[in-house]
Amino acid sequence: MEAPEDNLLRELNDLKASFTKTIDKLAKDLKRQSKIMARSDKRQRKEYDELQAKLQEVKDLSAEIEETQREVVLTMGAIGESRSKETGNHVKRVAEYTYILARYYGLPEKECEMLKQASPMHDIGKVAIPDSILNKPARFTPEEFEKMKEHAQLGYDMLKYSNRSLLKMASIVAYEHHEKWNGKGYPNATSGEDIHIYGRITALADVFDALGSARVYKPAWDDEKIFNLFKEERGQHFEPALVDIFFGHLDEFLQIRDSLKDV
Amino acid sequence: MENLFLEGTQYTPEINMNAESGVISMVGKSYPENTFDFYQPIMDWVTAYFNGEAKNKTVVNMEIIYFNSSSSKLFFDFFDVLDEQKDKHHVEVNWIYDEENESALEAGEDFIEDFENLVINLVGK
């Protein structure tokens, strides 16, 4: 017969064992917990560093891509310019004019900035037009003029396959900068708002600059003659709103023309 | 018993627990919204598996690229279950890591250090 105190003693021992086991488990978990946190912190810091490094790499690459794109576009514009002997700063002035027109027209700043970069490529298609036509110091024959007109389509074809937003924009500019608001332009005789705003803007900028510059086949026009023509062409060659912007901010256009004079 | 398959997501690894072949695999990242809830069925499955019809050899392939601290805790609990079985069953863990991912390698080394009686192979790829 077991004495009551033996029974109690056994129960106490069981309790002690169970208590120790629980404490050990708790201690193990606690110890493990701080270890897990310390390791996780270390690991996550490393991952964070890696991510930061990769992000920086991506940022550098995007900057590089944008810079390359800008250079390619400017170089292409310069090639078009040199081929057509539109000496000096023609494409640079057109770039600035298109920027102003786009801004006052209400396009988002980023788009204005892009148009400024894309518009210098409007004549890139001229690289595929024979020198004999491009540099002819006299009026074109109807056949020559037809040939010359191909530069819009040619420029478009050169650029249209690009997925780059800037080159896509340049393809539109090249394609539509000879369209007229009244539908009498080329290559598609598109009219009004069916002509892309980039084409409408570049058309005005290009004509303004071309008229004011001397070419192999003509002297520079004086301002009065240019302004009269613009008034006549409001709603004909050019979108009325753009002509209004032009006259409304004439000082800015003239300032650009002065600061980017041909030498 | 039924196999357990969970498709991987942006935050959770793909889980494939096959009772017939005795192969358990976890592949992907582990950042569940609620880590405990996510791993509960996995813990239940592995416990039931070892209590019932475990194969002679069980292979666990873990290829976890990134994981949060609660996942780390759950992996310890998971390894605890494997550790308890190692005398009754043949259990082998392959900790698979990308050789360019130093943190994944270090995590594997940490598990080896903590479960020295469990077979954990570091497999670089």
Rg over C-alpha atoms of chain A, rounded to the nearest angstrom: 36 Å
Counted up, domains of chain B total: 1
CATH class of chain A: Mainly Alpha
CATH topology of chain B: Transcription Regulator spoIIAA
CATH homologous superfamily designation of chain A = Hypothetical protein af1432
What is the second-level CATH architecture of chain A? Answer: Orthogonal Bundle
The low-confidence runs of chain A, each spanning 5 or more residues with pLDDT under 50, are: none
* Total E-strand runs of chain A: 0
Indicate the proportion of strand residues of chain A. Answer: under 5%
* Residue fraction in strands of chain B: 25-35%
Q: Can you tell me the CATH class of chain B?
A: Alpha Beta
Secondary structure tally: strands of chain B: 6
The Cα radius of gyration of chain B reads 14 Å
Q: Looking across the biggest beta sheet of chain B, what order are the strands in?
A: 1-2-3-4-5-6
What's the helix count of chain B? 3
Helical fraction of chain B: 25-40%
Percent of residues in helices of chain A comes to: over 70%
What does this structure look like?
The complex is a heterodimer of chains A (263) and B (125). By secondary structure, chain A is mainly α. Chain A is 70% helix and 0% strand. Chain A has a single domain, classed as Hypothetical protein af1432 (Orthogonal Bundle). Chain A contains ten helices and no strands. The relative contact order of chain A is 0.10. The mean pLDDT of chain A is 90. In chain B, helix 1 packs parallel to helix 2. Chain B is of the alpha/beta class. Chain B starts with a strand and ends with a strand. Chain B has one domain (4-124): Transcription Regulator spoIIAA. A six-stranded mixed β-sheet of chain B has the order 1-2-3-4-5-6, with helices on one face. Helix content of chain B is 38%, strand content 33%. Chain B has helices at 35-51, 69-85, 102-114; strands at 4-6, 14-18, 23-30, 57-67, 90-97, 119-124. The chains are: A mainly alpha (263), B alpha/beta (125).
